[in-house]
Here is the input.
Amino acid sequence: MSWSISMEQPLTLNPLLDGVKESATLAINQKVAKFRAQGQSIIHFGFGQSPFPVASEIKQALIEHAGNKHYLQGEGLAQLRHTISSYFQQHFDYHYKEEDVFIAPGSKEALFDCLYCLEGPLLLPSPSWVSYKPQAMLLGKEIYPIQTQFDNNYCLQANELEMACQQFDINQQKLLILNSPNNPTGLVYSQETLNELVSVCQKYNIIVISDEIYAGTEFNGTNHGSIAHAYPQRTIVTSGVSKYFSAGGYRLGFCLIPTELNELKNALRAVISETYSCVSSPIQYAALKAYTDSPKLNEHLTKCTKLHEIAGNYLHQRFIAMGLACQKPQGGFYLMPDFRNFKEQFKARNIFTDINLCNAILEIAGVAMLPGSEFGMNQDMLSVRVASVDYDGIKALDALDKSPQDVVNVAMPNLIEGCDRLAQFLTD
Ligand SMILES: Cc1ncc(COP(=O)(O)O)c(C=O)c1O
Here is the structure.
Protein backbone atom coordinates (compact mmCIF):
# COMPACT_ATOMS: atom_id res chain seq x y z
CA MET A 1 0.00 0.00 0.00
CA SER A 2 2.60 2.53 1.12
CA TRP A 3 4.64 1.38 -1.91
CA SER A 4 2.03 2.59 -4.42
CA ILE A 5 1.57 5.93 -2.60
CA SER A 6 5.28 6.71 -2.71
CA MET A 7 5.32 5.92 -6.46
CA GLU A 8 2.80 8.72 -7.00
CA GLN A 9 4.82 11.35 -5.20
CA PRO A 10 6.29 13.93 -7.59
CA LEU A 11 10.06 13.81 -7.87
CA THR A 12 11.72 16.77 -6.19
CA LEU A 13 14.90 18.03 -7.78
CA ASN A 14 17.63 20.22 -6.40
CA PRO A 15 16.33 23.82 -6.78
CA LEU A 16 19.79 24.88 -8.01
CA LEU A 17 18.87 23.10 -11.25
CA ASP A 18 16.22 25.75 -11.98
CA GLY A 19 17.04 27.39 -15.30
CA VAL A 20 19.87 24.97 -16.10
CA LYS A 21 19.23 22.99 -19.26
CA GLU A 22 21.26 20.78 -21.56
CA SER A 23 24.19 22.72 -22.99
CA ALA A 24 23.20 24.62 -26.17
CA THR A 25 26.09 23.18 -28.16
CA LEU A 26 25.00 19.61 -27.53
CA ALA A 27 21.35 20.49 -28.19
CA ILE A 28 22.09 22.04 -31.62
CA ASN A 29 24.13 18.98 -32.51
CA GLN A 30 21.13 16.76 -31.88
CA LYS A 31 18.86 19.07 -33.90
CA VAL A 32 21.25 18.90 -36.85
CA ALA A 33 21.50 15.09 -36.57
CA LYS A 34 17.68 14.90 -36.64
CA PHE A 35 17.37 17.11 -39.75
CA ARG A 36 20.13 15.18 -41.49
CA ALA A 37 18.45 11.85 -40.62
CA GLN A 38 15.33 13.24 -42.36
CA GLY A 39 17.42 13.69 -45.47
CA GLN A 40 17.91 17.46 -45.22
CA SER A 41 21.27 18.93 -46.15
CA ILE A 42 22.52 20.96 -43.19
CA ILE A 43 25.75 22.91 -42.96
CA HIS A 44 26.92 22.68 -39.36
CA PHE A 45 28.42 25.91 -38.10
CA GLY A 46 27.10 25.12 -34.63
CA PHE A 47 29.41 22.58 -33.02
CA GLY A 48 33.04 23.26 -32.16
CA GLN A 49 34.98 20.01 -32.30
CA SER A 50 38.40 19.73 -33.89
CA PRO A 51 38.06 17.97 -37.27
CA PHE A 52 41.55 16.46 -37.16
CA PRO A 53 42.56 12.91 -36.21
CA VAL A 54 44.40 12.30 -32.96
CA ALA A 55 48.13 12.07 -33.78
CA SER A 56 49.26 8.48 -34.33
CA GLU A 57 51.86 8.49 -31.51
CA ILE A 58 49.18 9.51 -29.00
CA LYS A 59 46.87 6.72 -30.19
CA GLN A 60 49.77 4.27 -30.00
CA ALA A 61 50.48 5.23 -26.39
CA LEU A 62 46.82 4.63 -25.57
CA ILE A 63 46.93 1.16 -27.15
CA GLU A 64 50.14 0.27 -25.34
CA HIS A 65 48.62 1.16 -21.98
CA ALA A 66 45.19 -0.38 -22.49
CA GLY A 67 46.08 -3.06 -19.93
CA ASN A 68 46.84 -0.53 -17.23
CA LYS A 69 43.87 -1.04 -14.98
CA HIS A 70 45.08 0.44 -11.72
CA TYR A 71 43.62 3.39 -9.93
CA LEU A 72 46.07 6.25 -10.01
CA GLN A 73 46.71 8.98 -7.49
CA GLY A 74 43.74 11.41 -7.58
CA GLU A 75 45.81 14.39 -8.75
CA GLY A 76 47.11 12.30 -11.64
CA LEU A 77 50.10 10.30 -12.79
CA ALA A 78 53.27 11.90 -11.38
CA GLN A 79 55.09 11.57 -14.71
CA LEU A 80 52.23 13.29 -16.55
CA ARG A 81 52.07 16.13 -14.02
CA HIS A 82 55.80 16.63 -14.32
CA THR A 83 55.65 16.59 -18.13
CA ILE A 84 52.78 19.08 -18.25
CA SER A 85 54.61 21.49 -15.94
CA SER A 86 57.74 21.28 -18.15
CA TYR A 87 55.64 21.68 -21.31
CA PHE A 88 54.01 24.87 -20.03
CA GLN A 89 57.36 26.16 -18.82
CA GLN A 90 58.99 25.55 -22.18
CA HIS A 91 56.16 26.67 -24.47
CA PHE A 92 54.59 29.49 -22.48
CA ASP A 93 57.21 30.41 -19.88
CA TYR A 94 55.03 29.45 -16.91
CA HIS A 95 56.48 28.46 -13.53
CA TYR A 96 53.96 25.92 -12.29
CA LYS A 97 55.63 22.85 -10.78
CA GLU A 98 54.69 19.18 -10.88
CA GLU A 99 52.80 19.47 -7.58
CA ASP A 100 50.76 22.35 -9.02
CA VAL A 101 49.17 20.18 -11.75
CA PHE A 102 45.81 18.46 -11.09
CA ILE A 103 44.52 16.10 -13.78
CA ALA A 104 40.74 16.02 -14.36
CA PRO A 105 38.30 14.28 -16.72
CA GLY A 106 38.22 17.34 -19.02
CA SER A 107 39.00 20.94 -18.19
CA LYS A 108 35.24 21.46 -17.81
CA GLU A 109 35.32 19.30 -14.68
CA ALA A 110 38.48 21.05 -13.45
CA LEU A 111 36.69 24.40 -13.83
CA PHE A 112 33.61 23.15 -12.02
CA ASP A 113 35.62 21.73 -9.15
CA CYS A 114 37.63 24.94 -8.74
CA LEU A 115 34.43 27.00 -8.77
CA TYR A 116 32.98 24.61 -6.21
CA CYS A 117 35.94 24.99 -3.89
CA LEU A 118 36.33 28.76 -4.15
CA GLU A 119 34.05 31.17 -2.31
CA GLY A 120 32.89 34.44 -3.83
CA PRO A 121 30.81 35.89 -6.66
CA LEU A 122 31.75 35.09 -10.25
CA LEU A 123 32.58 38.06 -12.49
CA LEU A 124 31.90 36.87 -16.00
CA PRO A 125 32.80 38.76 -19.17
CA SER A 126 30.07 38.62 -21.86
CA PRO A 127 30.26 37.02 -24.30
CA SER A 128 31.80 33.91 -22.79
CA TRP A 129 31.67 30.14 -23.15
CA VAL A 130 28.23 28.58 -22.65
CA SER A 131 29.05 26.45 -19.61
CA TYR A 132 30.53 28.96 -17.14
CA LYS A 133 27.20 30.45 -16.15
CA PRO A 134 25.30 27.15 -15.74
CA GLN A 135 28.20 25.74 -13.72
CA ALA A 136 28.01 28.73 -11.38
CA MET A 137 24.22 28.37 -11.20
CA LEU A 138 24.54 24.71 -10.24
CA LEU A 139 26.80 25.82 -7.41
CA GLY A 140 24.44 28.56 -6.27
CA LYS A 141 27.02 31.25 -6.96
CA GLU A 142 26.21 34.88 -7.51
CA ILE A 143 27.01 35.75 -11.16
CA TYR A 144 27.91 39.26 -12.25
CA PRO A 145 28.07 39.59 -16.07
CA ILE A 146 30.31 42.28 -17.56
CA GLN A 147 29.47 43.24 -21.15
CA THR A 148 32.61 43.65 -23.28
CA GLN A 149 32.76 45.65 -26.51
CA PHE A 150 33.08 44.71 -30.17
CA ASP A 151 35.63 47.53 -30.66
CA ASN A 152 37.83 46.01 -27.93
CA ASN A 153 37.71 42.61 -29.64
CA TYR A 154 35.33 41.60 -26.84
CA CYS A 155 38.28 41.59 -24.41
CA LEU A 156 37.55 42.72 -20.85
CA GLN A 157 39.09 46.13 -20.06
CA ALA A 158 40.47 47.23 -16.70
CA ASN A 159 37.88 50.03 -16.28
CA GLU A 160 35.02 47.59 -16.97
CA LEU A 161 36.37 45.18 -14.37
CA GLU A 162 36.82 48.00 -11.85
CA MET A 163 33.21 49.15 -12.30
CA ALA A 164 31.97 45.62 -11.71
CA CYS A 165 34.10 45.23 -8.58
CA GLN A 166 32.65 48.41 -7.09
CA GLN A 167 29.35 46.55 -6.67
CA PHE A 168 31.00 44.40 -4.00
CA ASP A 169 32.93 44.84 -0.78
CA ILE A 170 36.50 45.69 -1.79
CA ASN A 171 38.01 42.93 0.37
CA GLN A 172 35.52 40.21 -0.46
CA GLN A 173 37.11 37.42 -2.49
CA LYS A 174 35.86 37.47 -6.09
CA LEU A 175 36.34 35.07 -8.98
CA LEU A 176 36.96 36.04 -12.59
CA ILE A 177 37.11 33.72 -15.61
CA LEU A 178 39.16 34.84 -18.59
CA ASN A 179 39.40 32.78 -21.77
CA SER A 180 41.94 33.26 -24.52
CA PRO A 181 41.92 32.22 -27.36
CA ASN A 182 38.24 32.76 -26.89
CA ASN A 183 35.15 30.74 -27.50
CA PRO A 184 32.82 32.23 -28.88
CA THR A 185 34.79 35.08 -30.48
CA GLY A 186 37.99 33.45 -31.79
CA LEU A 187 39.83 36.50 -30.43
CA VAL A 188 42.93 36.67 -28.27
CA TYR A 189 43.84 38.92 -25.32
CA SER A 190 46.96 41.02 -25.77
CA GLN A 191 49.46 40.74 -22.91
CA GLU A 192 49.08 44.52 -22.49
CA THR A 193 45.32 44.28 -21.81
CA LEU A 194 45.93 41.42 -19.38
CA ASN A 195 48.63 43.36 -17.56
CA GLU A 196 46.22 46.27 -17.12
CA LEU A 197 43.69 43.95 -15.48
CA VAL A 198 46.20 42.89 -12.84
CA SER A 199 46.13 46.05 -10.71
CA VAL A 200 42.33 45.80 -10.49
CA CYS A 201 42.60 42.12 -9.56
CA GLN A 202 45.06 43.00 -6.80
CA LYS A 203 43.00 45.89 -5.47
CA TYR A 204 39.72 43.96 -5.33
CA ASN A 205 40.91 40.54 -4.14
CA ILE A 206 40.24 38.62 -7.34
CA ILE A 207 41.20 35.03 -8.06
CA VAL A 208 41.45 34.46 -11.80
CA ILE A 209 40.64 31.23 -13.59
CA SER A 210 42.39 31.51 -16.92
CA ASP A 211 40.72 29.08 -19.33
CA GLU A 212 43.46 28.21 -21.82
CA ILE A 213 41.89 25.16 -23.43
CA TYR A 214 42.68 26.69 -26.86
CA ALA A 215 46.34 27.43 -25.96
CA GLY A 216 48.60 26.67 -28.90
CA THR A 217 45.95 27.43 -31.52
CA GLU A 218 46.92 31.10 -31.88
CA PHE A 219 47.43 31.95 -35.54
CA ASN A 220 50.47 34.11 -34.81
CA GLY A 221 52.47 31.11 -33.54
CA THR A 222 54.07 31.07 -30.16
CA ASN A 223 52.75 34.33 -28.79
CA HIS A 224 50.41 32.97 -26.09
CA GLY A 225 49.37 35.79 -23.75
CA SER A 226 48.13 34.93 -20.27
CA ILE A 227 47.35 36.77 -17.08
CA ALA A 228 49.37 33.99 -15.41
CA HIS A 229 52.50 35.85 -16.56
CA ALA A 230 51.59 39.00 -14.66
CA TYR A 231 49.49 37.65 -11.78
CA PRO A 232 50.91 34.17 -11.14
CA GLN A 233 50.16 34.02 -7.39
CA ARG A 234 46.40 34.13 -7.85
CA THR A 235 45.82 32.67 -11.30
CA ILE A 236 44.61 29.14 -11.89
CA VAL A 237 45.17 27.99 -15.47
CA THR A 238 42.94 25.30 -16.99
CA SER A 239 43.71 23.42 -20.20
CA GLY A 240 43.75 19.93 -21.69
CA VAL A 241 43.99 17.75 -24.78
CA SER A 242 40.55 18.51 -26.30
CA LYS A 243 41.35 21.32 -28.70
CA TYR A 244 45.03 21.63 -29.61
CA PHE A 245 45.47 17.85 -29.59
CA SER A 246 42.02 17.20 -31.14
CA ALA A 247 41.13 14.68 -28.43
CA GLY A 248 37.93 16.03 -26.81
CA GLY A 249 36.51 12.54 -26.33
CA TYR A 250 39.56 11.43 -24.37
CA ARG A 251 38.25 13.61 -21.55
CA LEU A 252 41.55 14.76 -20.15
CA GLY A 253 42.08 18.24 -18.80
CA PHE A 254 43.86 19.80 -15.85
CA CYS A 255 44.35 22.86 -13.77
CA LEU A 256 47.58 24.53 -12.70
CA ILE A 257 47.37 25.95 -9.20
CA PRO A 258 50.13 28.16 -7.78
CA THR A 259 51.80 27.43 -4.43
CA GLU A 260 50.14 30.52 -2.96
CA LEU A 261 46.77 28.74 -3.34
CA ASN A 262 47.87 25.51 -1.64
CA GLU A 263 44.66 25.38 0.41
CA LEU A 264 42.74 24.99 -2.83
CA LYS A 265 44.91 21.98 -3.67
CA ASN A 266 43.93 20.28 -0.40
CA ALA A 267 40.26 21.01 -1.07
CA LEU A 268 40.54 19.64 -4.62
CA ARG A 269 42.23 16.47 -3.36
CA ALA A 270 39.21 15.87 -1.14
CA VAL A 271 36.72 16.60 -3.94
CA ILE A 272 38.55 14.33 -6.39
CA SER A 273 38.78 11.49 -3.91
CA GLU A 274 35.04 11.69 -3.19
CA THR A 275 33.92 12.06 -6.81
CA TYR A 276 35.86 10.75 -9.84
CA SER A 277 38.78 9.17 -7.89
CA CYS A 278 41.18 9.57 -10.81
CA VAL A 279 41.15 10.01 -14.58
CA SER A 280 41.29 6.87 -16.74
CA SER A 281 44.79 5.48 -16.49
CA PRO A 282 45.39 4.59 -20.20
CA ILE A 283 44.23 8.09 -21.16
CA GLN A 284 46.76 9.64 -18.79
CA TYR A 285 49.53 7.71 -20.56
CA ALA A 286 48.24 8.91 -23.93
CA ALA A 287 48.28 12.49 -22.62
CA LEU A 288 51.84 11.92 -21.44
CA LYS A 289 52.77 11.34 -25.06
CA ALA A 290 50.87 14.47 -26.15
CA TYR A 291 52.84 16.70 -23.77
CA THR A 292 56.19 15.07 -24.55
CA ASP A 293 57.53 17.27 -27.33
CA SER A 294 58.42 15.53 -30.56
CA PRO A 295 59.22 17.27 -33.86
CA LYS A 296 56.76 15.02 -35.74
CA LEU A 297 53.90 15.77 -33.37
CA ASN A 298 54.69 19.49 -33.35
CA GLU A 299 54.66 19.52 -37.14
CA HIS A 300 51.22 17.87 -37.18
CA LEU A 301 49.85 20.37 -34.63
CA THR A 302 51.24 23.34 -36.55
CA LYS A 303 49.46 22.10 -39.68
CA CYS A 304 46.17 21.75 -37.82
CA THR A 305 46.44 25.32 -36.52
CA LYS A 306 47.27 26.56 -40.02
CA LEU A 307 44.06 24.95 -41.28
CA HIS A 308 42.03 26.59 -38.50
CA GLU A 309 43.47 29.89 -39.66
CA ILE A 310 42.62 29.23 -43.31
CA ALA A 311 39.04 28.24 -42.42
CA GLY A 312 38.59 31.20 -40.04
CA ASN A 313 39.99 33.71 -42.53
CA TYR A 314 37.80 32.37 -45.32
CA LEU A 315 34.63 32.71 -43.25
CA HIS A 316 35.65 36.14 -42.03
CA GLN A 317 36.22 37.45 -45.51
CA ARG A 318 32.88 36.05 -46.71
CA PHE A 319 31.00 37.47 -43.70
CA ILE A 320 32.44 40.94 -44.28
CA ALA A 321 31.56 40.72 -47.98
CA MET A 322 27.93 39.92 -47.15
CA GLY A 323 27.65 42.88 -44.76
CA LEU A 324 28.02 41.26 -41.33
CA ALA A 325 30.04 42.91 -38.57
CA CYS A 326 32.81 40.53 -37.53
CA GLN A 327 36.28 40.74 -36.01
CA LYS A 328 38.98 38.73 -37.72
CA PRO A 329 39.68 35.54 -35.75
CA GLN A 330 43.09 35.16 -34.10
CA GLY A 331 43.00 31.64 -32.72
CA GLY A 332 40.86 28.57 -32.06
CA PHE A 333 38.00 27.78 -34.40
CA TYR A 334 35.20 30.26 -33.84
CA LEU A 335 33.91 33.60 -35.04
CA MET A 336 31.17 35.78 -33.63
CA PRO A 337 29.64 37.90 -36.40
CA ASP A 338 26.51 39.99 -35.87
CA PHE A 339 23.73 41.07 -38.18
CA ARG A 340 23.35 44.67 -36.89
CA ASN A 341 23.26 45.96 -40.49
CA PHE A 342 20.17 43.86 -41.23
CA LYS A 343 18.02 44.85 -38.25
CA GLU A 344 15.49 46.87 -40.23
CA GLN A 345 15.24 44.32 -43.03
CA PHE A 346 14.73 41.52 -40.50
CA LYS A 347 11.79 43.26 -38.80
CA ALA A 348 9.74 42.66 -41.95
CA ARG A 349 10.65 38.97 -41.66
CA ASN A 350 9.62 38.82 -37.98
CA ILE A 351 13.20 38.38 -36.85
CA PHE A 352 13.82 40.40 -33.70
CA THR A 353 16.19 38.24 -31.67
CA ASP A 354 19.24 36.11 -32.30
CA ILE A 355 17.10 33.05 -31.49
CA ASN A 356 14.54 34.00 -34.19
CA LEU A 357 17.49 34.52 -36.50
CA CYS A 358 19.20 31.16 -35.87
CA ASN A 359 15.88 29.32 -36.23
CA ALA A 360 15.13 31.11 -39.53
CA ILE A 361 18.62 30.45 -40.90
CA LEU A 362 18.42 26.78 -39.94
CA GLU A 363 14.92 26.28 -41.38
CA ILE A 364 15.23 28.42 -44.53
CA ALA A 365 18.92 28.13 -45.40
CA GLY A 366 19.85 24.86 -43.70
CA VAL A 367 22.78 26.40 -41.81
CA ALA A 368 23.14 25.67 -38.08
CA MET A 369 24.61 28.35 -35.80
CA LEU A 370 24.25 29.25 -32.13
CA PRO A 371 22.61 32.47 -30.92
CA GLY A 372 25.01 34.89 -29.19
CA SER A 373 22.58 35.07 -26.26
CA GLU A 374 23.69 31.54 -25.30
CA PHE A 375 27.05 33.18 -24.63
CA GLY A 376 25.67 36.13 -22.66
CA MET A 377 25.03 38.63 -25.48
CA ASN A 378 21.74 40.57 -25.59
CA GLN A 379 19.31 38.87 -27.95
CA ASP A 380 18.67 42.07 -29.93
CA MET A 381 22.37 42.38 -30.81
CA LEU A 382 21.70 39.63 -33.37
CA SER A 383 25.09 38.01 -32.85
CA VAL A 384 25.77 34.37 -33.65
CA ARG A 385 28.55 31.94 -32.80
CA VAL A 386 30.01 30.21 -35.81
CA ALA A 387 32.33 27.20 -35.60
CA SER A 388 34.61 26.85 -38.63
CA VAL A 389 35.16 23.09 -38.48
CA ASP A 390 32.54 21.53 -40.79
CA TYR A 391 35.11 19.86 -43.04
CA ASP A 392 37.09 16.64 -43.36
CA GLY A 393 40.31 17.22 -41.39
CA ILE A 394 42.27 14.42 -43.08
CA LYS A 395 41.44 15.73 -46.55
CA ALA A 396 42.38 19.24 -45.45
CA LEU A 397 45.74 18.07 -44.06
CA ASP A 398 46.45 16.41 -47.41
CA ALA A 399 45.64 19.64 -49.27
CA LEU A 400 47.79 21.91 -47.15
CA ASP A 401 50.52 22.34 -49.77
CA LYS A 402 48.03 24.31 -51.90
CA SER A 403 47.18 28.02 -51.63
CA PRO A 404 44.66 28.91 -48.86
CA GLN A 405 41.86 29.45 -51.38
CA ASP A 406 42.59 26.10 -53.02
CA VAL A 407 42.61 24.36 -49.63
CA VAL A 408 39.10 25.76 -49.08
CA ASN A 409 37.99 24.80 -52.61
CA VAL A 410 39.33 21.27 -52.36
CA ALA A 411 38.77 20.35 -48.72
CA MET A 412 36.22 22.72 -47.17
CA PRO A 413 33.21 22.70 -49.50
CA ASN A 414 30.73 23.04 -46.64
CA LEU A 415 32.27 26.36 -45.63
CA ILE A 416 31.70 27.65 -49.15
CA GLU A 417 28.19 26.21 -49.32
CA GLY A 418 27.29 27.58 -45.86
CA CYS A 419 28.41 31.09 -46.86
CA ASP A 420 26.58 30.89 -50.20
CA ARG A 421 23.41 29.90 -48.36
CA LEU A 422 23.79 32.69 -45.82
CA ALA A 423 24.36 35.27 -48.56
CA GLN A 424 21.24 34.00 -50.33
CA PHE A 425 19.26 34.17 -47.07
CA LEU A 426 20.25 37.82 -46.71
CA THR A 427 19.25 38.79 -50.24
CA ASP A 428 15.94 36.87 -50.32
C1 LIG B 1 36.16 27.80 -23.73
C2 LIG B 1 36.08 26.37 -23.35
N1 LIG B 1 36.50 26.00 -22.14
C3 LIG B 1 36.46 24.72 -21.74
C4 LIG B 1 35.97 23.73 -22.57
C5 LIG B 1 35.92 22.32 -22.05
O1 LIG B 1 36.87 21.53 -22.63
P1 LIG B 1 37.19 20.04 -22.10
O2 LIG B 1 36.28 19.75 -20.97
O3 LIG B 1 36.97 19.17 -23.27
O4 LIG B 1 38.63 20.08 -21.65
C6 LIG B 1 35.51 24.06 -23.85
C7 LIG B 1 34.94 23.04 -24.73
O5 LIG B 1 34.31 23.30 -25.73
C8 LIG B 1 35.58 25.42 -24.27
O6 LIG B 1 35.18 25.82 -25.48
The longest strand covers residues 174-179. The two ends are 64 Å apart (CA to CA). The CA atoms of residues 43 and 417 lie 8 Å apart.
